Amino acid sequence: MNPDSAVVRCEQHLRDWFTRDKESIMKIIDGLDIGWGGVQRWATSRMPEIAGLHLDFACGYGTFTAQLGWRFPDIHLVGLNIDYSGPHACIKSLLDEAGVVATLVQSDAQYMPFKDETFRSVSCFLGLQDIKIGFGETGVAKSVREAVRVLRYRGVMVLIDEFPFSDFQKILDELPVIEVERAERRIDVRWERGIAERAIALYAEGWVAQHRGHCDRRLYDEKFTEMKYDMEDQLREQGYYVPFGPIRMIIVEKREQTAAVLRQ
Ligand SMILES: C[S@@+](CC[C@H](N)C(=O)[O-])C[C@H]1O[C@@H](n2cnc3c(N)ncnc32)[C@H](O)[C@@H]1O
Description:
Layout (H helix, E strand, L loop, with lengths): L3 H15 L5 H8 L7 H8 L5 E6 L5 H9 L3 E7 L9 H8 L3 E5 L12 E7 L2 H22 L1 E11 L3 H8 L4 E9 L7 H19 L5 H22 L8 E8 L5 H4 L1
Parallel strand pairs: 1-2, 1-4, 2-3, 4-5
Antiparallel strand pairs: 5-7, 6-7
Helix pairs in contact: 2-8, 3-4, 4-5, 8-9
This protein binds S-adenosylmethionine.
The site of S-adenosylmethionine has 22 residues, from helix 4 and helix 6.
């Protein structure tokens, strides 16, 4: 496992590259994607040492995939995502710039194109929330179930998201896993109004895109208004805006070989 100091240098290099053509506010907003305010580093530092074949599902444009590659040099990474076009098209150049090698697979996480027990470890970083937007709670439960199916006996699965622990628990209770660790972390970000206002407009657009239905103006307005209320509350109460979190991580180990029930 590489130390934080090495990972911080990799993050800084990738952030400079990722935001190289952006103006100052967008450098800050887009720069958050690399490292997510220290949360990715915190998460990988708490993970057990992993090596061999690892699946990072709902990998987006691969910022956590890169983080895994920096932290665990002996890992063989597979990234799975439903989209690799539009804003996701940058994943290949991002991973190249990060110096991380990964095999990329395009698939819906609810139906993973892998045999049972393929991977020694599995992760999902802020992917379940987008699966929930597009495919509902059933989609989240199906995706986690698939992740356990393709995980080897005694392999480790790491789920990181904004869901309350009780939501993770409800899904995991049905599966042949035992909890190894749970932890929670606030992102290390404090934005002033100018940055916050720009960010919520972009995040509301992203939310509508994940909705996968008809791109309707009403959906955007509803999400934007909800985020604006939260932003105003935060600015009034604490004087700054924190765009996400708290982020919760749950680590489980698979305790039975993939049973027929998981394949149903
Ligand atoms: C917020 S991003 C996750 C961030 C990413 N893990 C990273 O480290 O940069 C969520 C991703 O989930 C993907 N996604 C949504 N539904 C999915 C599904 N059913 N199967 C696979 N990927 C999905 C979206 O395309 C989006 O890129």
